[in-house]
Design brief:
104 residues; mainly beta; Metal Binding Protein, Guanine Nucleotide Exchange Factor, Chain A; 5-stranded antiparallel beta sheet; 1 helix; 9 strands; globular
């Protein structure tokens, strides 16, 4: 699964929900129109859990989860890109905000 996204990576979000914590996901949120798939959407599988409002996309071959799709509080479509899937960036240089997803 290949994609590209436009925008500045000013920070990342680390969620402690049961899924994100186990995967170690560092999320960067972008408006969904700013992320373009370079491989067909059919190449990705979808996992829904908890409230079934976020589409957790993953590769059915290797199992890696590069992004999720959902809706921002204002109703706009948003993509949560797993920064650990982007090569060539210094993750240690990106400020990380922590979100308590386990309590909601």
């Amino acid at each position: 699964m290949k994609f590209e996204a436009e925008g500045e990576i000013a920070s990342a979000l680390s969620c402690n929900c049961s899924m994100c914590q186990r995967k170690g996901t560092l999320m960067w949120f972008v408006p969904r129109p700013d992320m373009r798939l370079l491989t067909p959407d059919d190449n990705a599988s979808t996992y829904l859990f908890n409230k079934h409002v976020i589409k957790h996309r993953f590769c059915p071959v290797c199992g890696i989860s590069p992004y999720s799709e959902g809706t921002a509080p204002n109703g706009d479509p948003v993509a949560a890109i797993n920064l650990r899937c982007i090569e060539g960036i210094d993750l240690d240089a990106i400020p990380v905000n922590h979100y308590d997803g386990r309590s909601i």
